[in-house]
Amino acid sequence: MASQAEARMRKLEAEIRRHQNLYYVQHKPLISDRQFDRLLEELSSLEKENPGLASPDSPTRLVGSDLDNSFPKFKHTIPVLSLANTYSTEEAVAWAEKTCEKKETILIEWKVDGATLVLYYEKGKLERAVTRGTGQVGDVVTENARTIRSIPDRLSEAIDLTVRGEAYMNFDEFDAFNEQQGNIYANPRNLVSGSLKHKKSRETALRPIRWVAFEAYFAKDEKLKTDSSQLDRLSQLGLPVFESHTVSSSGLAAKIELLSKKVKKLNFPVDGLVLKVDDLNLRRDLGYTSASPRWATALKFEPELAQTTVEEIEVFTGRTGRVTPRARLVPVKLAGTTVTYATLHNADYIEKLGVRVGSTVKISKRGEIIPAVEEVVDQGKGPPFSFPKKCPSCGSKLVRGEEAADWLCPNEECDEKLMNAIVFFCQRKQMDIAGLGERNVEILFRKGFVKTIPDLYRLGERKEELEAMEGFGSKSVQIILEGIEASKKQEYRRVLYSLGLREIGPSVTDILLDHGLHSIDDLINAARAKGAVEALQEIHGIGPSTAEAIVEQLNDKRVLAMIDSLRQAGLQFSQKIEKSNLQQIFEGQTWCVTGSFENFKPRDLAMAEVKKRGGKVVSGVSKKTSHLLAGEGAGSKLEQAEKFGTTIVSEEEFLRLIG
């Protein structure tokens, strides 16, 4: 009997996987949903009767579990960068002509409006699914990703592969799910993003998420010369890909026009087109900037617009001191939500548009997140808007910012600046302090209980006073105090970017950690060192303005006093670094890389090997660069290295060094 049950279970597994592929990958279902569910139910029943015969990667296990996920961090092994944007066909064609001087082929894909998800396969099995995160470090959401039926747990071949794609929802499936939930979700993308981070994968499994591949990184050379052939290869392996189009730069405008007309007929959210150089060798030559690949760009479609009237123009001061205007509107429906407020960006923008109270305007939701006033249809009869000369919060005279269009409040004691800094610190993406949303922070700030970030860690001394306040009570106060205590366990990388210092966000934090600045003391010492700005600029990804901001702020007595108070409160100000078992042969050395390589695609993989062995990596060659790894097609960096007497290492020598 056991052999019969086992044979039936293996047969059911194969049949279920085939129908999953037909439905989620090929979009050609052969059976109804109910018929599919019956197959799944039969397999589940047999597994309960014969637990010893159940496969570890059975399709029934893809529905997830009730375990809470802690979402550990993972450093991406591939570039997970954003794309540069263009906003017109003319700009897109100009980019193509400049990038492809020899009229190489351009690959065009839909720009799916979802959430980036990178899959790591080892010997054909899904080992890890990671969100984009900062572009360098993402959240591991493997168990949630396993519930997405268009993601195969096993490829058709036992190969090592990293593939980048987009999680999304079809409009009809989103609408049906949202209706069941009482229409509480604003749009498919937000629901997808939240679902990938759900703490219970069984809940993620209930949501109709799909996933599509758009970029491949094979561990072994597949001898493929174009991106389009790589996408075909992904399809052969059982991964879903959308139809793509190849065209020469001379035919690009016509193809863009044709595809633009098809957008409204699509059943999934698209906010533009992705244009990529198809030739992989040319891509390697073009390389990357610190933020995006030079061989790709995104053509963003014009946003959906709605017309309404401006009832009031308000200005408010943010945590950085930037004074931002916004329009209070006659409520209007746009992109599935009701919009009451829209940003007006800055004083120059208001003057350029000529917007005033009573104006009839068109608004958009760029990226379906921040509504913005785009156009004035009728100015109205109200007087021109006069941007305030003083801070709306503290009355200080405003000063121009680095961006000429910005007006800033220079008062470091401005209530709105201080309060918004605390709000930012407490938010979920920062220190994630439960119970301290914007409303409660404002109440505590106005009451005088919390005037600075360190004051949060003295709130326990006021427990009885807090419990006596209207709208609080013992339970809510306990949640707040427990949230504050829990925040002391947040890792240093999170603490650093939660401080709200200029230019030091998650991405810059990761770059600093990668460079060996593993504690706040390391960073302060680097900012105090002679030639600190120039030294920081040598770190790959740190530009002049970021370097200057780091040095200025970490020599500011106010900032240092805040850090010292938080350190005494028990926050983490050093990062635990896993020690490598590898011999630290590159310790004390500074490496740079140029050219293309046979064994390191992309070449950043070679620099990862340097870091594992104790070396530092920089983006440009200088007198301080000790070694240059030079591959085929090395250019100006090689000339600079020869000029400075830098040790030049070939790929063959490098492989020998790392064993």
Question: Quick gist of this model?
Answer:
The chain is of the alpha+beta class and 659 residues long. It has six domains: 60 residues, Helix hairpin bin (Helix Hairpins, Orthogonal Bundle), CATH 1.10.287.610; 217 residues, DNA ligase/mRNA capping enzyme (D-amino Acid Aminotransferase, Chain A, domain 1), CATH 3.30.470; 104 residues, OB fold (Dihydrolipoamide Acetyltransferase, E2P) (Beta Barrel), CATH 2.40.50; 73 residues, Orthogonal Bundle (DNA polymerase, domain 1); 78 residues, 5' to 3' exonuclease, C-terminal subdomain (DNA polymerase, domain 1); 69 residues, BRCT domain (Rossmann fold). It has 24 helices and 22 strands.
Features:
659 residues; alpha+beta; Helix Hairpins; D-amino Acid Aminotransferase, Chain A, domain 1; OB fold (Dihydrolipoamide Acetyltransferase, E2P); 6 domains
How would you sum up this structure, described in words?
This protein is an alpha+beta fold and 659 residues long. It is built from 24 helices and 22 strands. Strand 12 (305-317) and strand 13 (323-334) form a beta hairpin. It is globular.
Helices and strands, with pairings:
Layout: H1 2-25, H2 33-49, E1 73-75, E2 84-86, H3 89-99, E3 105-112, E4 115-122, E5 125-131, E6 137-139, H4 142-145, E7 161-168, H5 171-180, H6 188-196, H7 201-205, E8 210-218, H8 227-236, E9 245-248, H9 252-262, E10 270-277, H10 280-286, E11 296-300, E12 305-317, E13 323-334, E14 337-343, H11 347-353, E15 360-366, E16 370-378, E17 399-400, E18 407-408, H12 415-426, H13 438-447, H14 463-468, H15 474-487, H16 492-498, H17 506-514, H18 520-528, H19 532-537, H20 544-553, H21 557-569, E19 590-594, H22 604-612, E20 616-617, E21 627-630, H23 636-644, E22 647-649, H24 651-658
Parallel strand pairs: 2-11, 19-20, 19-21, 21-22
Antiparallel strand pairs: 1-6, 3-9, 3-10, 4-5, 4-7, 7-8, 10-11, 12-13, 12-15, 13-14, 15-16, 17-18
